[in-house]
Amino acid sequence: MNGLINRAIQCFLRDGWGAAAWQDAARASGVPARGFEPMLTYPPEVTERLLQVAADRLNRDRDCLLEDLGTYLVSHPSRAAVRRLLRFGGTDFPDFLQSLEDLPARARLALPDLVLPAMRVTVLGDQRFVLRIGDGFPGAGAVARGLLRAMADDYGALALLEAGPEGSAGAAEVTIRLLDPAHAEGRSFTLGARE
């Protein structure tokens, strides 16, 4: 598993539950307390073990924890670069959804070692979309649901998300129903690093 993904999990646990919670999960899963080196690659079992230990220690369902990770990636101030990368995809939430197919390539431009699973968006009509995520990361559907909820809020849209089937290698499906594209005022956004 890419070190950047593992590092994001580490920061999510530390920022959400404190350094002691991160160190406890790291120790129990056999990860050094100093954490992950973002530019290294780790066996997928390391990530799976860490996620399971963290879910157990925090008394959380693994998928709920991963949904919260998706939300964290967009909404936490320390992840502003992720939000900028995502907001670059469109001026409104429907544009953003349709740009998700390009996200793996955009991410590789910024971080050449980061390999995201393939994504395909199908427009069903009547403000309904289906996001299909390819193999690569078990739990990607849950992360995507959290990320999509946070992005809908970021754009000021009201959307209903439904989890679809998920394969053991991470392939997943999320159905998005856009209830109101202008439900609330979205967060301000500028392409530059300062907001």
UniProtKB/TrEMBL annotation:
GO biological process: cGMP-mediated signaling; response to oxygen levels
One Gene Ontology molecular-function label: guanylate cyclase activity
GO cellular component: guanylate cyclase complex, soluble
Regions crossing the membrane: none
Coiled-coil blocks: none
InterPro entries linked: H-NOX_domain_sf, Heme_NO-bd, NO_sig/Golgi_transp_ligand-bd
Domain of life: Bacteria
Positions of the Heme NO-binding domain: 3-148
Protein name: Heme NO-binding protein
